Structures are given as structure tokens and as C-alpha cells.
From TrEMBL:
Residues 159-181 have a biased composition (Low complexity). Residues 143-181 are annotated as: Disordered. InterPro entries: RNA_pol_sigma70_r4 (IPR007630), RNA_pol_sigma_r3/r4-like (IPR013324), WH-like_DNA-bd_sf (IPR036388). Residues 96-143 form the RNA polymerase sigma-70 region domain. It comes from Streptomyces coffeae. It comes from the Bacteria. This is RNA polymerase.
């Protein structure tokens, strides 16, 4: 019994290692695009994201039963990024760092990975029209070359005026820079 289990675990580990050796580079590049990091610099966030996705794939390895492990890992990567996308808002100098996390996710899945709109919509829990609109907007932002404007503050966040450091919308003190008759 132990020998069978050990042989099965050994086979599983060899199969998974072969999968990672073949697909790891492309998956790391996709993770790097998602996190907005430069591929030539430190890609720590992308490596962490990919490691978590690969761990989830390995945990399900025996239950894939004919399912493509690359597709499974890609969807795990997308799901992990979608849940933690707010961690990747600050610019990191990468090609897609001008885009919001959701725009990056849709663009990477649709254009880099070649996933159909319907599959992308199902994976993200969005209507197909919404995925199409996000992709179109992201492509136009990338083509324009103009940096994306920061998104408005979410409910509960307090934005500040960059010039005065006061909360946005707060009355300015008399004599403050940029005010007066």
C-alpha cells in the first residue's frame, strides 16, 4: 500500500514538474503583465502570484481528469489576481501599469492568452458585453499613450488635494495658494 502511494506521489510530482518546466515561463510572463511589473526587473509580486496559482493547481492535479493543466493554472492565476487586484494599483513601471487591475486582467486573458470573450466573462463573473467594453477601453488607453487618470476614491476613502494636503472638497483657508479674489 505504501509503495503504491509513494509511486503515485512520485509520478504526480514528475508530471507536475514537467508541466511547470514547459509552461512556467509563459505563465510567469502573464503574471508579470497582470501585476504591472517590468519583466527585466524584480518580479517578486508576479512570482508570488504564480506560486499561489501553481500550488492550487498541484493540489487539484489528480482531479484534473483530462482538463488542461495550463488552462486550470491560468484560471487560478486570474482568480487570485481578481481577488487581490487592489494590491496592484500602484505603478510598477510595466507595460500595462497604466491600466486598472480589472482592465489588465481582461486584456491579458483576451489578447495575450487568447481566451474567448465568453470564457473570460464566465471566469470573471461578468456579462460578455462588460468584458468587451473593458477590453475596448483598455486597448484605447494603451494606444493613446496617455497615462490613465487615477480612479476616483471609493466610498469611505478620503482623497486629498495634492497642492494643499487638505481633504478634497473641503473649504480652503483664506490666503491659501490658488485661492483669493
Amino acid at each position: 500500500m505504501r509503495e503504491r502511494r509513494a509511486a503515485r506521489e512520485s509520478r504526480r510530482a514528475r508530471e507536475f514538474e514537467a508541466f511547470v518546466a514547459g509552461a512556467g515561463g509563459r505563465l510567469l510572463h502573464a503574471a508579470t503583465l497582470l501585476t504591472g511589473e517590468r519583466p527585466t526587473r524584480d518580479t517578486t509580486a508576479a512570482q508570488h502570484l504564480l506560486t499561489a496559482a501553481l500550488a492550487r493547481t498541484y493540489a487539484r492535479w489528480d482531479r484534473l481528469r483530462g482538463e488542461d493543466p495550463y488552462d486550470r493554472t491560468r484560471m487560478e492565476l486570474a482568480a487570485l489576481f481578481a481577488r487581490g487586484g487592489h494590491h496592484y494599483r500602484r505603478p510598477r513601471g510595466g507595460t500595462l501599469d497604466r491600466l486598472a487591475p480589472r482592465e489588465r486582467l481582461v486584456l491579458v486573458l483576451r489578447l495575450y492568452e487568447g481566451v474567448a470573450e465568453e470564457q473570460t466573462a464566465a471566469a470573471l463573473g461578468l456579462p460578455v458585453e462588460r468584458v468587451r467594453a473593458i477590453c475596448t477601453r483598455a486597448v484605447s488607453v494603451m494606444r493613446s499613450g496617455v497615462p490613465r487618470q487615477p480612479s476616483p476614491p471609493r466610498r469611505g476613502d478620503t482623497a486629498t488635494d495634492a497642492t494643499t494636503g487638505t481633504p478634497a472638497g473641503a473649504p480652503k483657508a483664506a490666503g491659501a495658494a490658488g485661492t483669493g479674489p
